[in-house]
Amino acid sequence: MKPNLSNTNSNGVDILFYNGVIYTADKDNTIVEALAVKEGKIIFTGSSKDASRYMTDAGEVIDLQGRMILPGFIDSHLHAPGRALIDLYNISLYESLDLESVLKQVENFIQANPDQEIYYGEGFSLGLFSGEEVSRGPRKEHLDSVCPDKPVVIYSSDCHLAWLNSCAFNAFGIDKETDVPAGGVIEKNPVTGELWGTLKEAAMRLIPEQTFSEHQLEDAILEFQSFLHSLGYTGILSVSIASAPPLEAFYKIGQRDELKLHVNSTVTIEPGFNLTEQVELINAMRKKYSSKYHSVSTVKFFTDGVVEGATAYLLEPYSPAAGKNASYRGELLWNTERLTEAISLVNGIGLQVHVHSIGDASTKAVLDALEMAAVEAPAGDYRNTITHLQLVDPVDIKRFYDLNVIASVQPYWHCKEPGWWDVVDYHMLGERAECEYPLKSFFDTGLKVTSSSDHPVTPYPNPLRAIRAGVTRNITAEGSYGLPLLKDTDDPRGLLNKAERVSLTDMLRSFTINGAYTIFREKITGSLEPGKQADLVILDRNLFDLDPLDLESAKVMSTYFNGEIVYKREV
Length: 571
Ligand SMILES: [Zn+2]
Hints:
Elements: E1 15-18, E2 21-23, E3 31-32, E4 34-38, E5 41-46, H1 48-55, E6 60-63, E7 68-71, E8 73-78, H2 84-89, E9 91-92, H3 99-112, E10 119-124, H4 132-136, H5 140-146, E11 152-156, E12 161-164, H6 166-171, E13 184-188, E14 195-201, H7 214-230, E15 233-238, H8 247-255, E16 262-268, H9 275-289, E17 294-302, H10 336-348, E18 352-357, H11 360-376, E19 385-388, H12 394-402, E20 406-409, H13 421-429, H14 440-445, E21 449-451, H15 463-472, H16 504-511, H17 513-518, E22 536-539, E23 556-561, E24 564-568
Parallel strand pairs: 1-6, 2-7, 8-15, 9-10, 10-11, 15-16, 16-17, 17-18, 18-19, 19-20, 20-21
Antiparallel strand pairs: 1-4, 2-3, 4-5, 7-22, 11-12, 12-14, 13-14, 22-23, 23-24
Helix pairs in contact: 7-8, 10-11, 15-16
Bound molecules: zinc ion.
């Protein structure tokens, strides 16, 4: 595919940008004024004066008038196609801010789609509930009140919990005697022993998976791609949850030359099945579904659950408020020996390991396994990654560096979120929650830190929001909580451990060149240097001039992938 055919000019450049603030993300964090693109590649960066020699023969000349150009953003952990399938075909609860509106939304969808046999939905947060429902999840009776006669299954916004009505339990043959799958929880009423209404983690496998046609999936991926372009993204690591990842849809779109995004995909490996067979299967997928911009590079592991479900694996017991027995610390979903074996198999065929790990005990076990696997494995460039990293034992941070492990963080969560911090994190963890989500500690060791949204867990994956959170460690989108705009970055209401604040440059690198490194594409994208693909985003203002609290006010004006404009803001 040749971009900008109409503009291609055999003597000159296709596009010349000048008079801007162009942050290149090269190793010296160089800022230049001008950049020239020819046949999708950057061929020049430098001063506007030096760029003037391209002016007369350029296909298009763009005066940036002081606007900013950055390398296209790369999100190194999100779940494609995000909310597109839900928005197009299911009950979406991401915008519902209380139980009443959740139930109203379910009821409306059922009325509008009376012929569906099973209703699926997604997007509620445990922050909407109180009392026992915070840790067990919501009760089935709420859903029974709006739908007594057909199965309803609603996944939480973090996708670690499913909420069912009574009819769904019946239809799927789940009752109080059902064997609980390893690594899962079937919540029951502690007094009566009856089903409560939720399934957690591996127990969600008892629910039949919703199927979509290939056509539906491809449409959703294209819609998702446009959404990402509008936020300035040109690359992602698309992470599988429990369901099959959309490898074929990415591959097919790529074959039609409609994939305008660097995409690496993960496939999940599970401890309960034969490891060699699973790794061979993933290797076969790698060969089958790789195309110019899509590769199956990575194997996803879950070694624990989440704090809100009391399934994260901790070094010290949960807080008494969590309602668990006094020594309960959650559980590790893999034993260390088996985890080591799996890592060795995965790295052994040149695939990357990407581990979901929330609790400090879980992360310690993963580092132990990576260390043991490294003893056996041939030296290789694996770029193994641990993601989420809510609690990390400080003594383990240096081990990331020593073992060459990437820390994949979600700075969107690096604050005390109203309606979540008190109700979930502090409630379940107590005082240690004050030290959750290390950030600067990671950067300080010199290891690679890469940022991501975990969208749709983070409903609005605007990288500028995460950049603001990483720089301030304070709440973002205050208005959506009904709070006045922050005037002071030290406002204590949402401030989470300000010692972990990082610089704007660190945050920009985590979303650009470090992201490119994580998806093995730092030689072709992630920075703006001659020879690289022209993947870039134009912002309406210079981030370096802004007060940290104003960082999210910058707007994406346009996004380019391989020198081709893929998003342009309507003015
Ligand atoms: Zn995720």
